[in-house]
Design a protein that fits this description.
single chain; alpha/beta; Rossmann fold; seven-stranded mixed sheet; five-stranded parallel sheet; 12 strands
Length: 328
């Protein structure tokens, strides 16, 4: 064989395995999503969609280098625990825990699978050792600082200055909900407001508590602390506030788009978009223990003028000028 022919054959032989390796599929990383919400809840699906879009922007594509396993808890703790066990059994590379109720069973089941959560008070819940140094297999995002809760009462008094008695819906079993109530209490006296706690753990307690409160006042208002039962039953709460003509303030925008009066709080869709960045970093080798828990960076004031009109309230122009969104 001539030298030129030999070199040509050798080149082809060595090029073939290189080409084959270049065309081999990428390693597929498995990502779990456990949410305490329902698959037919527009707000829950909006957050999950933002998370998936964030993954795509970081280069993760379902079917090419990523697989996503979804589980929807529908607000049922037993179902959330069942789905947590299913996801851990799949040995995923990372799991998004959408809400504290989703993070708890995942962390009870595994100290190895990386968890990225969205939670109210991850330190008090025992998810992390501290916000700056999580120290375990979980990290993520807080929903807001509890001191923010006092601003809800200030906002209510700006819109409804005549409100002197305010019902505060809370979950008495939740340390986060209790902390929010305490922050509201801290400013109540300076605003000449008397507070009335209402249990929001189930629909019957919510309806009974709000109805009893409304019967005893014509200068009442309503504030909702943020906790899983309140979020799950938000349509009922908004309907009761409308029925009893109670001006109400909430922590998130989606309460106002559903008919609530006003809200001030973080953009939770933005939190889930940022959570995708943490999952990306974990998939690329970083450890949850080294990623500090982050606070929200985007807050929004939303006012529903249609609801204000139904309550015979005039929203101050100065407040409307500050609003990030006004629903008419």
């Amino acid at each position: 064989m001539k030298r030129r022919q030999f070199i040509t054959l050798l080149g082809a032989a060595t090029a073939w395995p290189l080409a084959a390796r270049a065309q081999s599929p990428e390693r597929v990383r498995r990502i779990g999503i456990l949410t305490q919400g329902a698959a037919n809840d527009p707000e829950t699906t909006a957050r999950v969609t933002a998370f998936v879009q964030g993954l795509q922007q970081s280069g993760w594509s379902v079917g090419r280098n990523a697989r996503i396993d979804y589980r929807w808890g529908n607000g049922e703790n037993a179902l959330i625990r069942k789905y947590a066990a299913e996801l851990i059994a799949l040995t995923p590379d990372a799991v998004l825990a959408a809400g504290g109720a989703a993070a708890r069973p995942l962390l009870d089941l595994s100290s190895a699978v990386p968890i990225v959560f969205d939670a109210l008070d991850p330190v008090a819940a025992g998810f992390v050792e501290s916000l700056a140094h999580p120290g375990g297999n979980a990290t993520g995002f807080t929903q807001f600082e509890f001191s923010l809760s006092g601003k809800w009462l200030e906002l209510l008094k700006q819109i409804a200055p005549g409100a002197t008695r305010v019902a505060v819906l809370r979950d008495p079993t939740s340390t986060a909900s209790i902390a929010q109530f305490s922050s509201i209490q801290a400013v109540a006296s300076t605003l000449s407001v008397e507070l009335f706690p209402v249990d929001d753990r189930n629909p019957a307690a919510i309806e009974r508590g709000i109805s009893a409160f409304a019967r005893g006042t014509d200068t009442g208002g309503l504030i909702l602390t943020q906790n899983p039962p309140a979020d799950l039953h938000r349509d009922l709460i908004i309907a009761l506030a409308a029925r009893h003509k109670l001006p109400a303030v909430y922590g998130f925008r989606y309460y106002v788009t559903a008919g609530g009066l006003a809200s001030y709080g973080p953009d939770r869709v933005d939190i889930y978009r940022r959570a995708a960045g943490y999952v990306d970093r974990i998939l690329k080798g970083e450890k949850p223990a080294d990623l500090p828990v982050q606070a929200p960076t985007k807050y929004e004031l939303v006012i529903n003028l249609k609801t204000a009109k139904a309550l015979d309230l005039t929203v101050p122009p100065s407040l409307l000028a500050r609003a990030d969104e006004v629903i008419e």
